[in-house]
Amino acid sequence: QHDVEELKRRHIEHLSPVADRVDASILRYRMPGFMLEDIHHQLGAHDNMDRLSEVLEEANRVRQDLGYPPLVAPIRQMIATQAVNNVIGGERYATVTQELKDYLQGLYGRPPVPADHELRRLVLGREEPITIRPADLLEPQVEGARQQVKKLGFDPSDDTVLIHLMFPHLAPAYMRGPQPEQKDGEKPAAAASKPAEASPPTAPPPAPEPVPVAAGTQSAEFDVEVEGEIFKVRVSGAGLSVAAAPGGAPSGANSAPAPPKIGEGTVLAPMQGLIVKVPVKPGDMVKLGDVVAVLEAMKMQNDIVTTVAGKVAAVYVKEGEVVSPNQPLLAIG
Q1: Does CATH place domain 2-133 in 3.40.80.10?
Q2: What is the residue extent of each domain of the chain?
């Protein structure tokens, strides 16, 4: 027992908060320990551990909506993520992950009980779930991959083709094998083996004459805001100098645009993440439940859906932009 306690003290930062105790939540909420750990990690990432009991209750409601699927990977992570989104976002299914959409589409198979019809309509819109075996939708890929391996110049054996199918970006480097390290400034072997072509000597360009710069001569100037105070930064021959901007405000040309107003039709980011897709533009008509943005957070893509119907009045973000929680993404008028 002493050895166990010593190991715990030495590796306490790597221990799960639910791994070293008897947790009655496993029986109370009817979910496995791994799922409890998933929820702990996600709430910790959002700094909302005080809402643990709400999320545990919501997880069972989400599972009921999905038709009581077995709580194994990746279904348990999907339910845990959706429960956290529902509680922290303040509105159920205002944000849904791509994995949840695929589940309701039938790409994970048929659940023990049909999923909630209203939820399916909200997430899928007019799309209908598939009624066939999901694997039947996959196109044959082996022969195409074998041809790609041949084009890359490698032996198209079954092992090589399988590696290419599973890891298409890493497969070429793996199949080439280890390469000798190239030192800084060293030319590649292929390039070094070729004789250098003689070229007529050229006179070196004349060195520019140094121009004396006065200590106070200005070469660049811009405004910097630090904790609400505006500073004017000048880059001069003597270095960098900082001075408070007159009037305490930047000029009109450099002032930041006013933040968009939040109204009834404003779609907000439910969490911090990366905008990977904005499928709408100003002037587009959207219906209730349409996907208006895709936000990637915690290694999952989340569909941001609209809760009102109407015309897109403005789009405030672009693809590739990192957004903060509750940041306006677009407005629907």
Answers
A1: no
A2: 2-133, 142-176, 218-247, 266-332
Architecture of domain 266-332: Beta Barrel (2.40)
Whole-number Å distance between alpha carbons of 166 and 259: 45
| Spatial separation of the C-alpha atoms in residues 164 and 158, rounded to whole Å | 10
> Do the Cβ atoms of 62 and 79 come closer than 8 Å?
yes
Bigger pLDDT: 262 or 221?
262
Q: Which residue type does 290 have?
A: D
Q: Determine the Cα angle at 25 with ends 10 and 297, to 5°.
A: 70
Give kind and range of the element (H or E) at residue 294: strand 291-297
- pTM for the model stands at 0.49
pLDDT, averaged across the chain: 78
Helix (H, G, I), strand (E, B) or coil at 330: strand
- Number of Cα atoms under 13 Å in the Cβ half of residue 72: 3
Predicted confidence at residue 194, as pLDDT, reads 45
CA-CA distance, 68 to 62, in Å (whole number)? 9
**Percent of the chain scoring above 90 in pLDDT:** 25
